Amino acid sequence: MASMRILVTGGAGFIGSNLVHYLLGQAGKDHGVEIERVVNLDKLTYAGNLSNLTALKDDPRHVFVQGDILDGEGFAKLLRDHDINAVMHLAAESHVDRSIDGPEDFIMTNFVGTFRLLDAALKHHKERSAAGKDDFRFLHVSTDEVFGSLSATDPAFSETTPYAPNSPYSASKAGSDHLARAYVHTFNLPLVTTNCSNNYGPFQFPEKLMPLMIQKVIRGQNLPVYGDGTNVRDWLYVEDHCRGLFLSLLKGRIGETYNIGGMCEMKNIDVVHAIIDAVNAERPELNRSAEALITYVKDRPGHDRRYAIDCSKIQAELGWAPQETFQSGLRRTVKWFMDNEAWVKEIEDKKYQLERLGAA
Predict the structure, then answer these.
(1) Strand order in 265-267's β-sheet?
(2) 4 in Cβ contact with 86 (< 8 Å)
(3) For residues 122 and 128, what is the distance between their CA atoms, to the nearest angstrom?
């Protein structure tokens, strides 16, 4: 694929916008390919933010389209109009607490929406193949939450771990993974799936653990920690994830799944302590105290105890490994949020949603 025309779904969200920046920045240089165009399809729900894409406003290779992945016909038109030869599907409802409060949006977007994308992509692939074009690929991006919860002594999730989703969010993603697999094995759609661990980094929506705690530490507010704080997650810096996604798209074996993890298991309470230390290191004058800020709150219903990712397959087959340690990634993340407090304020004031309405 010497020249690529990539359609990214969910490209105004956290991981999606970081991916679009990577695609139009370093990706082509890393792999010796030309990124001719990135068509960025995003519905601009609460988590989609045009401010995440401000740095790309003068890049003619970036085409932003506000749209819904449930609109299969609209998606098919984009594939045709731009002669897309790669789809990177990230669009999803992804917040567990929101899925508990209202599961239907998660089922519609994550499951039905993925079905409509797969169906349109299959027709597009067949049309391109009939015209002698044989360079189409589809990357389906999923999560480690589809595997359920681990005990303290269980081995990490591998690509062959049985699915056992425990929330409406993870169940909807598990369903979409099964659809993706079916479209490979029944219809020969050239598709690769990835499952990732907890991402963190620039542009992450402020309700998520890392940015939420960073802002609260800066402001000297209480830090609410679920349960006893011993739930374990694997932490992956978002830029490392983006590199793994593009590598999987380019070189992953069709029909295979690749786990992408940070190789960094940490208890939530230890993450919170690390955030306090990182903020204090960046702004010593704040001198925040864990004892004064941390408060324990009632646990989330069905809260999975531990996630851990075994990413040895993508390391062995594709040569990927995270470049950031948790410490270096956290430092970069804290500094970004400190340098971009206006971005956070716009979200808190819901000004970014006015931009969304203007884009409609």
Answers:
(1) 198-200, 232-237, 265-267
(2) yes
(3) 10
Q: Which of 68, 144, 265, 324 is catalytic?
A: 144
Check if the beta carbon of residue 79 is closer than 8 Å to that of residue 121.
yes
3 state DSSP class of 4:
strand
- Annotated active-site residue in 68, 93, 145, 177: 145
Instruction: Spell out where 49-116 has E strands.
Output: 62-66, 86-89
Q: What DSSP state is assigned to residue 153? A: T
Residue 1 DSSP label = -
**Cα 141–Cα 182–Cα 47 angle in degrees, nearest 5:** 25
The CATH architecture to which 3-203+237-262+308-327 belongs is: 3-Layer(aba) Sandwich (3.40)
Give dist(CA 186, CA 353) in Å, integer.
41
pLDDT in tens, 185-219: 999 999 999 999 999 999 999 888 999 999 999 99
pLDDT digits (tens, 9 = 90+) for 134-165: 999 999 999 999 999 999 999 999 999 999 99
Report field, pTM of the whole predicted structure over 0.85 = yes
Among the options 169, 200, 258, 352, which is catalytic? 169
> Cα–Cα distance between 239 and 46 in angstroms, integer?
22
**Would you give the end-to-end CA distance of the chain in angstroms?**
33
CB count in 10 Å sphere of residue 7: 26
Establish whether 169 is a catalytic residue: yes
Q: Dig out the tokens for 338 from the structure.
A: 């400190």
145 is catalytic: yes
Q: Would you kindly state where each structural domain of the chain is located, as residue ranges? A: 3-203+237-262+308-327
What phi and psi, each to the nearest 5 degrees, are found at residue 343?
-65, -45
Q: Is 277 a catalytic residue?
A: no
CB 241 within 8 A of CB 15: yes
